[in-house]
Specification:
The protein is an alpha/beta fold. It has helices at 22-31, 48-55, 104-119, 131-136, 151-158, 161-175, 189-205, 223-234, 270-276, 281-293, 317-333, 338-354, 357-372, 388-392, 427-441, 457-467, 473-479, and strands spanning 36-39, 68-77, 95-101, 128-129, 141-144, 179-184, 209-212, 242-243, 257-258. The chain has three domains: 22-293, Alpha-Beta Barrel (TIM Barrel); 317-445, no CATH class; 450-480, no CATH class. Helices cover 42% and strands 9% of the residues.
Length: 480
Amino acid sequence: MTKFSHLHVHTQFSLLDGAADISTLYKKAVGDNMPALAITDHGNMFGAFKFVAEASKYNTKENPNTIKPIVGCEFYMVEDRHKRQFTREERDVRYHQLMLAKNAEGYSNLIKLCSLGYVDGLYGKYPRIDKELLLQYHKGLIATTCCLGAIVPKLIIKKGEAEAEVEFKWWLDLFGEDYYIELQRHDIPEQAIVNEVLIGFAKKYNVKMIASNDSHYVNQEDFNAHDILLCINTGEKQSTPTMKDFSEDESSMRGKRFAFYNDQFYFKSTNEMKELFSDVPEAIDNTNEIVDKVEVLRLKQDILLPNFQVPVEFKTQDEYLHHLTYTGALNRYGQLDAEIEERLNFELFTIKTMGFAGYFLIVADFIKAGRDIGVFIGPGRGSAAGSAVAYCIGITNIDPIKYKLLFERFLNPDRKSMPDIDTDFDDEGRQKVIDYVVEKYGKNQVAQIITYGTMAAKMSIKDVARVMDLLCPMQIYSLN
């Protein structure tokens, strides 16, 4: 029995555009005996780590091959990622482009494309890449003709088959056997036109076809909830007339809101996909070829910290941290009694055993640098306040011995995880500290981490009520 895997899937990490929970997707895929599942969020790989980790819940030692996680991304392609000046006549024209990581090299290149899309190509909310980047970072990647928002399909609709064929050949020359024609059927008139031409290209150039569904939510009945999410994203109301022609330009959207064409953009079952593509069964079967090509990725890496250079008179980071700790302790406490020394020695031994001396030195250094340039810095919060070493070297300003705070809540040999030091900087000074760190350790050694928030009940009710033109409970209360 021919199996099928979804290779074009958007999760909740396609922010305010995807409405599919990763764990729910896996449950449905595993329940349908799909051999693999891909993640292809718009312009980012925010969910990749969680996505691969979730697969491990199903891939046990007894049954290691239940489902294969495939990491991908649907990029925004533009002619020049550096260009940021546009007019009504000359707009920022973006095309969608799906790519999947075939192996570790491909995953590394996906990361580079995503990162450079934000660093070099961010315009508005869109991280953009171009062919110049793709020529550098295409190895180990699988590419497809993607959806109606991609360049080949758009050229078919707008410019005709001949111009689309020239573009198609460029992608085929670059990716070779790792370039696939992607067929989608969402009952959209333009899709039928595009598919007919693409099937012709497949025969002419001997390029394999795959079937996909542009999945943005899990079940068909989630369509309305997803439409509400789109309205929240665009600041529109559901009552606003919709623009459903995927081939239209943004200029034609005036007075209309973006909406999906119908309720077919859900995570369809294998049987539904087989029935939908019964006339081209090879498009179903070829998804298995891609699954076989893809290697399982190991995303969890060992901790790698920048090397903190200690003064020449000290041999190791641990020795230097010991020096700073006891020098700071004399300043903090004046005189060291047995309790203080025992606590400091215990903490220093634990830090040395776990290999985190460099981490403490790095944090203490940029906090000191911030204070030296006049940045207002908080006293520290969270479990780090339980560290006497952090207190002595100036990371925190709360005496954990005085207040009987436990160091083990912060750093514990039984829990092999990175210590988490929470520190607040004033709004204006924060960037100065970031600039200092980038200057000291190098741009390629520094990254900022995003924190995700979810819509709580009160905000959800308020947003949904606005989208649906309803009075929310808070407004009703105020009227009464």
